[in-house]
Amino acid sequence: MTLAPLATALLGGVVALDATPVGQTMISQPLVVATVLGALWGDWRTALEVGIVLQILAACTLPVGARTPEDYATGSVIGIGVALALAQRRSFLVTHEASELLGVGVGLVAAIGSVPLLRWQRRLNEGLSRWCESEIREGREEALGAAHRAAVGLAFGVGVAYTAAFLMAGSWSLAVPCERESLRLAKAWWLAQPLWLGLGLAQVLNAFVQRRPLRGAAFGAALIGAWLVLMVGAS
Amino acid sequence: MERVTAADLRRVAWRTFLLQATWNYERQQGLGWAWCFKPVLDRLYPDAAVKGQRLAEHTAYFNTQPTMASLALGAVAGIEEECASGAGPDVGAVQRIKAVLGSALAALGDRLFWSTLRPFAACLGVLIALGGSWRGAVALLVCYNLFHLVIRWRGVAWGYRRGPAGLGEGLRERLDTLVARLCVLGAALVGVLVAALLAPGGEPRGLAFQALLAAGLLLGMVAALRARPSPTQWALGLGALCVVAAWLR
Q1: Least crowded by CB within 10 Å, which of A138, A150, A235, B238?
Q2: Which residues of A touch B219 (CB under 8 A)?
Q3: What value does the mean pLDDT of chain B take?
Q4: In this predicted complex, what is the ipTM?
């Protein structure tokens, strides 16, 4: 268990790479992160509860063009990591639900807070590009590889450091409120969870439907059909 | 005259994983493009000085959707081959073709990968994970990468064979059809997901949960009409309101 926070910080670096610099294979998506961290910390339930909310909210955050979107990659590692760190202190259900609320909250703050860091890295890469071009023009082609190694190393390092700092600060500062106010925080979770899920699903639905009646009808028919199947199947 | 080989194209495909490693506001994927394209230049220009010159020119501004960049890299490899043999367009024309391909493929790729496939894979994964299963994450990864990795790997060779003309209208029509079908399926998937949230395993959730989910959907529809505040800012505000409400009750 003592290795779990360290592994979580390293995962922060890995997802920071997958999000933009290397691959974009979606291992940085909150649901995948939740599955990995759930196995790592031995608490699937808490990890998936937080991961599902963050995944739905992240689904329509688009990295289109030059826009720097909220960083749900490190945000989800931090949010789920904080929730797991807080939940492992007590086994009561309300403490777990309080941890889940705080986990999603910290994850959202971390996702927004990471944007200036991403912009800073991208500005550093501007200098790297100019340096690399001048080196190539002088016949040093190996500068291309060096520039890529430097950029990947920087992204990984920033991901690890940001995750570790947020994880430590979050789990340390929220431990007492989570324990003392667990009942109120659990109530807030009961209110916030469906609202968050609804908010995120509406964004996703809007992206799919795009004011086309056929797609709206597909949504309505699937909702009613699935509801009936679930109810009839249960009875 | 040297020709680009299948091994060169495979090396380019491998390198596309680092296309965005040095992404920046000035040249965007420019340096990444040069990194990916280097095996082609190594093959076509035995003279180190000429190769260095071409490599430096390829560090100029370029941007597209990262998965679709494989197609552009393949197509431009074919043009560069003609250019190196002296039969094809000049260096300036290569740059212009790159820019046109970049914009066209970005429009297609953004719609297919970011606006459709990613939310679709996310909904599929969440639907499976609702029961507490690790299979949701696997479903998300498989669903997305089935398209993503195939285009990343095979796109370079495909773009090389078809050339820029092959990446025009025909490809656009096929991808538009795919996007339209995925959108219908995606809308239905969201419907199933909402039903699964309202009655997991056929046990209806409490009225408060159902009402709050409906309120969230309604609020999300209103929020989707505006660019600001972003959904993340909305979510943060809603979370704060819920904490305040829980404290006041």
Answers
A1: A235
A2: 195, 198-199, 202
A3: 93
A4: 0.94
Instruction: Report d(CA B174, CA B177) in Å as an integer.
Output: 5
CA distances from B92 to B64, B83, B87 (A): 19, 10, 14
B24: nearest CB among A104, A123, A221: A123
| Distances in whole angstroms, Cα of residue A53 to Cα of each of A41, A68, B69 | 19, 21, 32
pTM of this prediction? Answer: 0.95
φ, ψ dihedrals at B24, nearest 5°? -150, 165
H or E stretch at B127: helix B118-129
pLDDT per position as a tens digit, A179-223: 899 999 999 999 999 999 999 999 999 999 988 999 999 999 999
Residue A226 near residue B192, CB atoms below 8 Å: yes
Q: What is the pLDDT of residues A40-79, one digit of tens each?
A: 999 999 999 999 999 999 997 876 666 688 999 999 999 9
Q: Report the residue from B189, B195, B236 with minimal CB separation from A227.
A: B195
Residue A172 CB contacts under 8 Å (≥ 6 apart), including other chains = none
